[in-house]
Each structure stands twice: as C-alpha cells, then as structure tokens.
C-alpha cells in the first residue's frame, strides 16, 4: 500500500501518457478519415465577416502554440544534450571511483611499511649521537675534574720549586756564612793594626785639632761575627742529593695523562659503541615486525576483492546504460527535430496562407499560395499525429526512471535513510549483504561506519581492531630498547687513573719536610746581619782624616794623615765592600728560608694529602661522571624511540588506514547517480 501510495503520481502520469499515446493516433486516423470524406475543412467558404474573425483567431492560437513549441523544443534539446554531457563522465567515474578506493586499500600495507621505514630517521640520529658519545664523555670528565687536578698539580709544582729553591738557598747560606767568618778572621788583625796607628797619629801633640776624631778612631772595631750563627750543615746533609726525582717530568706526565682522558674514552668505548650500532640494526628488524604482523590487510583484502568484483560486474551494466543513453539521445534528437519540422511547417503554412489571402481580390477565390500554405499546415498536423505520442512515451520513460531514482534513492541517500534501509535485515538479499562484503564487525552497521569515516576516523577505529590486535603492546618502548639500555647500563671503564706523584717524589718531599729546615734559628742570622762589618764607618773616618790633613801646619803629620786616610779607603774598597755584598746575598737566602720554614711541614703534608686524595678520587669521580653521562645519553635516545613509536601508533590508527576515502567514495557515488544522471533525467 505504501508503494502504491508513493507511486500514485507516476501512475497518473502513466495514465496520461497512455491516454495521449492512444488518443493522438486515434484522433489522427479520425481526422484523416474525416478529411477523406471532405468533412473536416478543405472547402471554400463564402466570405463573411465572421470568417475573417475566425481566421485571425486561428492564426493567433496557432502562432501562440508554435511559440510554446519553439520554447519547449529548445529546452528539450538543451536538456537532452546536458544529459548526454553528464552521463558520459558520470558513467566513466564509476569504475574510477571503485578503482581509487581499491587503490587506497591496496596502499594500506605500503603505508604501514612507509611508517615502519621512517625508523631510519631516529636510527640515524642515534648513530650520530653515538659517534660523539665517547668524546663527549671524555670531555665532560676532563671539564669537571680539571680544576681539582690542575690545582693539585700546581701545588705539587710549588712544593717541588720550594725544595729546589730551599736547597739552593741553604747552600748559599752555608757558603756565605763560612766566607764571612773567614773574611772576618782575615780583616781583624789588619783592622787592629790600622786602629793602633790612627790612634797614635791622632794622639801626637803635633797633630792640630785631632782630638775630635780620636774617639771615632778608638772605636774602630769589627762588627758582625758570623761564626756565631747556627750551622745548616745538618739540614744540607739531610737534603743531600735532593731532588732525586724529576718533578717537572713527573708533572708533565701527570698532566698529559689527565689531558688524554677524552682520547682514552674514545678508545675504551669503541667496542660498546659498535655493539650499540649492531643492536640498532636488530632493533630495526624488530620494528619491521610491526609491519609484518599488522592485521589490517587481512580486513582490507576481502574488501579489495569485493571492489574488484563490483568493478568487473559494473562494466557490462555501464556499457548497457551508455548504449541506452546513446539510443535515447538519438531518439530524443530525432523527435525534437521532427517537432522543429512541425514548427517549420506551421510557420511556413501561416506565412503562405496569410500572404495568399492578402493577394486575393475576392476572399472566397482560390489562390495557389494559400493552397500551399494549407498543405504545409496539414503536413505539420500529420507529423504531430504520427510522432508526438512517441515523444511523450520517451519523456515519460525518462521521467519515470529518473524521478524514482531521485525520490527513492537520492533523497534517502542525502538524509542517510538509505543506510538504515541497507542495515535492516531482510531488505536486501543475502548476496548483497554489504556488512559482510565490507568485512565490518558483526555489531556494526553501514550508517555508523559512514558517520565514523566521514568524521575522519581510521579503519583501525571503525573495525575495532584493538579487540584482536593489541597495538599498544606491540609499541611498548622496552620491547625495542631493553638490550640497548642493558648494554649502556653494564658498561664500565676506568678513565681516571692518573699518577700525579710517584713514590720517589713522595719520599723527596717527606725528606724535605723532615730535614729540619724549620728548626734553624734564622733570627740569629738576621740579628748578626743588623750589625755592620766594622763598627765605625771607614769612609767617614777616612774623610775626617783628610779634613784634618788640610788643617795641619806640620807637613810630616799632614802626610801621615793622608796616608792613613788612603789606607782606610783601600780597606773599605777591597775588603769591607766584598763582605757587605756577601751579607746582602746572605740576606736574600735568609729572608726566603725564614718565610718558608714556619709553614714547610704543613704545606708538604697538605700537598701529599691533596695528591693522594686526587689520585684516589679521580677514578671514582670519573666513573660517576661516566654513569651520569651515559644515563643522560640513554634518556635522550629513549625519547627518540618513544617519540617514534608514539608517532607510529598515531599514524597506524588515524592516517595510514584512513576510512575517509570510503565515505568519499559513497559521496562520489551519490553525486554520479543523483546529480549527473537522475537529476537531468
């Protein structure tokens, strides 16, 4: 009843078409019979005023009818050509759409493989990072430990310098003190004799004004006595032969060993880095298993086969439709041409008839042009009776097919009611079960699938493949990085074995500290150094004698004063000045040793403790830095793995196996059937 109610309009159209098809030929035969009996026109009538009005009325009606026919046949020709112009590409788009959809499904394995092949990007980045790992670790160890190491080496160099400089100054101290004592012993008798003679001369009554210088001459005695200073022979004996070690070479070797840590790291880590590169190759094989085990091709293969069958089965039907469309276009063009011919006959008949009537003197007279016009009108009438019913049948057939497709299929396709119809069991035969042919899950339907695909969901979500294949389990990072992490975590290397101070060098410093350098009384040296070599200034006394010489009247006394002055000057220049130079030299050594001695044991002890501590701590700290650097490197590389595997999951779920082409194919099918075929029909 619903179908009858729906098709009632088409039934009415069919009745009208059938009535027209029967009535027009019958009316034509009746008209022919009537004409043959000369009962339907063809006779001259007596001219009356009503005849002219009747002719004008018929001419106006026929002109209006001809105008309507002209407009209608123009629309018919344009529409027929539009149908032809849209049918051909529309029919060609059907296999193209099926082929495109099949191609998309066929490209799913290639897309999965392409995603897997992108592992080359993080792999190259990790290999690049591995190439710089060993040197980076070595440089980091060197950078973090160089302050401590360089400070220990600098302190060791200072102690070595102290040792060498102390031995040098002790030798100067001992030698200078001995030289000064010997010089004093030599100077003492000469100075005593010179004092006796000067005092005697100044005490001579003949010496005028000499009493003022007598006191200075009587105090002419030796000053500092370096025979009283403490001996440093014991210290020199303890330091004899030191330094036995080449501290400069020792420090150079320690510095070189420490600075070679980056190269040593490259050498020690070469094997583990090669193992990690090999492990990356094995990881690439594991990643390839994602593509090998991905289940989507098992679901898309039946769909592709169904699309191939649909494409093959559609070709004969499409060829038939194309052939029918060709016939339809030919028939429509021929019938429209006949209608145009009828129109030409009408226009020609009216023109000749009107022209013939205008040339007759008596409107009731016979005239050949009017007769010809009447025949043209009769030809048009005959063609209309013969062919118009065929045109009506063609129009009805086209309208019946196009209208039903537009109303039953297209309208429900637009509002998606057609998917509900297909999903309802029993509406389609089992051979047309699209849910089974598209390999959808049993609890799914075409309506929900179309909506999901239209919104951009992937086949993974539409087919709910996570029920049968746990993608997250296959994309867990530890599955691919466990061995990589283990190799990095198990790696150890001693990179901080630096020998700063050898045993002989340590013994030298310990001997230096025990030598008794700090027990020497340097104050005695400084106390004696504060005393002059001679208590009375020889240059001052000599100048006094020279002044007195000028004051003497007695030439003999004057000559003796001058001789004594010259003798004092000679003693000052030859003996006293050399002793003063030795005293200055002694003062430098005493000053250095006096500053060093109080802190000697403490500094040597600190230096020995620092070098021992640095030597002991360097391997431990280097190992800690190595673990930190490897841990940081491991976390960085694991982020590459994690980012890649997350990207793989997203691509496989959303982009690689996109369901949108299925919705697009259905929309294209609607456009082809409805907009390009049914709508023009």
Kindly list the characteristics that best describe this protein.
681 residues, mainly alpha, 0% strand, transmembrane, cholesterol binding, PROM2 protein, Prominin, glycoprotein
Quick structural overview:
This is PROM2 protein. With 681 residues, this protein is mainly α.
Measured distance between first and last alpha carbons: 27 Å
In percent, how much strand structure appears in the residues?
under 5%
Integer-rounded radius of gyration: 65 Å
Record field, number of beta strands? 0
The helix/strand class is mainly alpha
List the helices and strands in order.
HHHHHHHHHHHHHHHHHHHHHH
Number of helices: 22
Averaged pLDDT: 84
Helix content estimate: over 70%
Q: Largest sheet, described in full?
A: none
Tertiary shape: rod-shaped
Q: Which consecutive residue ranges, at least 5 long each, have pLDDT under 50? A: none
Describe the protein in words:
The protein has a domain at 183-275 and 507-618. 81% of the residues lie in helices and 0% in strands. It has helices at 2-36, 49-117, 120-202, 211-218, 233-238, 247-259, 261-268, 270-293, 296-359, 368-414, 417-423, 434-437, 446-454, 459-462, 471-474, 477-490, 503-514, 522-530, 538-551, 555-596, 600-655, 660-678. The model has no long low-confidence stretch (mean pLDDT 84). It is found in: Cell projection, Microvillus membrane.
